[in-house]
Amino acid sequence: GPCYCDRACARTLDCCHDYAQACPVSPCVVSQWSAWSGCAEPCKTTYRVRTRHIIQEPRNGGEACPALEERAGCVEYWTRQGTECQQSLIPALITTGGFGKARKKRAAADGSDRAGYCVEFQLVALAPGCLRSQPPHAGWMRSLREGHTVCVECQPPALHPPRQHCRGDGTGSLQNQLLHWQAVGNHQCKGTWRRIRQLDTCSCPSVHSFLFI
Questions:
Q1: CA-to-CA distance for 74 and 38, rounded, in angstroms?
Q2: Residue 152, exposed/middle/buried by CB under 10 A (0-12, 13-18, 19+)?
Q3: 89 versus 28: which is more confidently predicted?
Q4: What's domain 24-84's superfamily in CATH?
């Protein structure tokens, strides 16, 4: 009767007599991954892509081909024309408000008279890494709590020209838009918050008071 040249014939016992020589199992062979592409779109959270191609198709029941495309999260902070994206995309880098005292002394010594401002945010979410922060230099991160209102001061030299604002302060963001922040000194401490309002005259309390870097 007829004989067959596939993987199933070994179970059904109807392989051709020269199966081992004429019908070897050949798995799929693919190329190496290409380099990652740029972000699909600038100025928004999107994705980048890398691809590979098939060098040899599987034969005689060989292992099937794996995925030929991979995507990864991606954000570009610059437009195709080279201008900076909206502030809402840039994570705010923050540290303890106590650092601002030394900074103000240095600014006064340099003759800087630029006025800063404060921004109030409501903490929406934070990573577990904030609670694992080790004192003394990172102990301030333990005071971060979901739902709390925090006050973050923007002062020289973190004020960036020409608009004299701190990166990541949420300027131009939509109402109730989730913004991102990152604690300096612990890359595992980060999260999201919503901008409440800007205060041109700073009066941040000693508790829940932070500083833009």
A1: 8
A2: buried
A3: 28
A4: Thrombospondin type-1 (TSP1) repeat (2.20.100.10)
Answer whether residue 58 shows pLDDT above 70: yes
Per-residue pLDDT tens digits for 21-38: 777 778 899 999 999 888
The beta-strand segments (E) located in the chain are 29-30, 46-51, 54-56, 69-74, 92-96, 117-126, 149-154, 178-183, 190-199, 209-212
Which of left, alpha, beta for 82 (phi over 0: left; psi -120 to 50: alpha)?
Answer: left
User: Would the pLDDT of 166 be above 80?
Assistant: yes
**Is the whole-model pTM more than 0.85?**
no
Q: Give backbone dihedrals phi and psi of 9, rounded to 5 degrees, phi first.
A: -65, -25
Indicate the domain borders of the chain: 24-84, 92-212
